[in-house]
Amino acid sequence: MTTRQIFLTIFMLFFFMGSGIGYVWSNFEKTQIGYDLSQLKKEEIRLTEINRKLRLELAVLKSPQNLEAIAVQELGLRQPSYEQIVILP
Amino acid sequence: MKIKEKKWIRFRIYAVAAFFLLGLGTVWARAYQLQVLEREYLKPIADDHINRTTTLPSKRGTIYDRGGHELALSVETGSLYAHPNRIEDKADTAMRLSLVLGERQDKVLNLLKSPRSFIWIVRRIPQEQAKQVKTLGLNGVGVVTETRRYYPGREIASHLMGFVGLDNQGLEGLEARHDRLLKGPEYRLTHMSDALSRPFAISSPIPSGRGMHNLILTIDKDIQYKAQQVLKSVVYKTRARAGHCLVVVPETGEILAMAVVPEFNPNIFSKYKPHQWRNRTITDCFEPGSTIKAFLLAACLEESVAAPQTNFDCEQGEYKIGAHVVHDAHEFGVMSVSDIIARSSNIGAIKIGQELGYEKFCEYLRNFGFGSKTGVELLGERKGFIRSVKDAKPLDQCALFFGQGLTTTSLQLTMAMAVIANGGKLMRPYVVKAVVDDSGDVIEETHPKIVRRILSNETARKAARILENVVSDKGTGAQAAINGFRVAGKTGTAQKVDPTTKKYSGKKYVATFVGFVPVRQPRFVILAVVDEPQTTPYGGVVAAPVFSEVGEWSLNYFRVNPQLRVVTKGMDAQADAEKRPYADLEEEKPSKVMAGFLPDFRGLGMREVLRKGRSLGLKVLPEGTGLAIKQMPGPGAPLQSVSKVEVMFRPPT
pTM for the whole thing? Predict the structure, then answer.
C-alpha cells in the first residue's frame, strides 16, 4: 500500500465514522427536543387555561355591579349632576 | 508458513465470515417477517403503544360586548364520576370524598350505592378540588375535564345571550341562535410516547380553520346595566308585572341595550322559571296605544294631508262613532295637529287619521315595520298584527289611529321611532357586530342595513320637532326631559285586553315611552315599556322617567356635548318650542360662529360637515369616518384666507 492509499483509507474511515456519529447525535437531539416540545405544549395549554380563568376573574371584578358597589359604598362616589359635567372638546 | 497452517487460517476466516453472514441473514429475515409479512397485524399494536391521544374538552367561543368585555366565557372544570361496582369499601370512599368535596357523607354514600355501572358524583367543580380527589387515588373514582360556561356580568344582557345546558349546547338566546359558530370542535392531541410513557412529538392541538368563533355584540355592558337597574327599580316601585327597555343607535340599527325585567342569572338558570328566561322585547306583543300617533303624524306630514298648525275639533272629549263613544282623558276643544300629538288626544288622532284614510295608514304602518319581523338575529321573534281593511269595522278603523287593534313588539316600536330619528330610513336592528376567530381575525362583520326609506328627511325633521312638544311642560311626556338636551318622543298608555272577558280591562295597562335624544343628530332611540303598573297607568309618569334616566346616563357615558346650557328640567323644551313657531322649521344656526369666519365642525357628522363646507364655498377634505374630531385650520379662521379644510373623523366609541 502506498502512503496515499493509507491516507485515503484513514480519511474514509473517519468520514464514515463521523457521519454515523453525526446521524445518531442528530436523532438523539431530535428526540430530546421532542420531549421539550411536548412539555412546552402542555405548559402552553395550561397557561392558556389559567389565562382564561384570570380573564373570567377580571371580568367578574370589573362587572358594573361590582364596580358600582365599590364606588358607592366603599369610596362614597356618586353620579355627577348635570352642572358638574364639563365635557372638554 | 506451512501450507497446512495457511489453510487453517483461511478456514477460520471463512467460518467467522459465514457466522456473521448467517447472523445478518437471520436479522434480515426476522425484520422481513415483522415489517412485511406480519405488518398488518403488528402495526396497530405498536401504534397503540407509541401513540397516545388526549381529548381536550370542547370549548365554546367567548361573547364580548362592543368594548371587548367578556359577557360569556368557558373555562375548564373537573367532573367527578364513579363506577360503583368497582369500589370495594364504599363507606370509606364516601367519607374521604365528602371531606374533599364538603358534601354530606350519607349523600355521597347513597350515590355510590347506586346499582348503575356509571354515575356522576358531582359535575363542574373547581380543578383544584378535582386534583385533590385525584391524589386520594381512590379505586373506581375518576375525574374528567369538562368546560363550564360562566357569565361574569350575571344578569347583564342575560335574556339576549341566553344560556347553555350541561353538555355545552346552547339552549336560549344567542347561545342557541349561534350554537354552531360558538361551539368549538373537540380537540385531539396525538403524541408519541416512549417506554416510560413520557410524551414526545405532540401534534398541534388546533385543527386549522375549524376552530371556535367568538362573538362581538353591539351591546354596551354599562348602558345595558344602567337600563336594567333603572327599569328594575321602576318595575319594583310600580309593582308592575314586567318591563322592557331598549337602547338603539338610530343611524345604524345597533342595539346598545336590551333590558328585560324580570331578570334571571344565566349562571344558575335552572333556578328560574321559563317565563323569566323569555326575551320579552321580541316575543311579547302588546297594543302600542298612543305611541302610534307619532307614526300617524309622520304619515300625515309625508302625505301632506295635514300641516303642524292645521286645526281639528276635539269635540270636548266625546266623539260618537256609530253606536260607540270615544273619550279623551281631558276635554279639548279646537287644537292644532302639534297640540293633538303633544297632549295625546284620541279624538284629534281619529280626525287626523280620517284625513289620511285607514288603508293608507295601514300601508305606512307596514312600511314602518309593524306586522313583520324586524330581522334581528334572535330566536322567537314575533310579527305583531295589523287588521286588514276588509276585516276592520268603522270603530276598529278609528281605534287604530290611537293605537288599538294592532299589536307590536318593543323592538318594532323602537325601530319605527328610529325612522323618525334618522331622517326616514327603516334600519335592520342587529346585536352581533362581528364574528371573530380565536386569533382575533374577523370572519364576518355585520354592517348597517337599510330596509327601506319611508319618510323624506324634511318630514322626519318636522315630525321630530312636533314630538319634541310631547316632552314639554304642556305635553304628556314632560318627565322624559333630559337636562341640557332636546328630547323628542311619544307616550303611550294602552289598556290590555282581559283574556277572560275578551274586553279591554279597566285595570290592566301597558305604559310606554319611546323617544330619541338629541333631536338634532340623535344618538339614541330609547324605549321603555312597563307592563301592568299598579300605581298609575300613564306612560308619561311610569315609563318616561326610565327614558330620562337611561338617556341622561348614556349621553354622559358617550360624552355627548349638551346643547342647551343653564336650563332647568322641563323648561328647556318649552322655551325652545315657544322660541320657534312651527312654520319656521329650519335648522338653528350653530352658536358662537360669526359670519366670515370658519365654523367649528367638531362633533358633527360627515354629511353635515360636507353640507356646511359647501354652503360656505369651501373644499372639505374628510379623513376617517364617524364624527369630526379635528379640523385644519381651526375654527374661527377668517374665511377669506381659507379655501380648503381638512377634517378628521373618528367613529363614536
Answer: 0.78
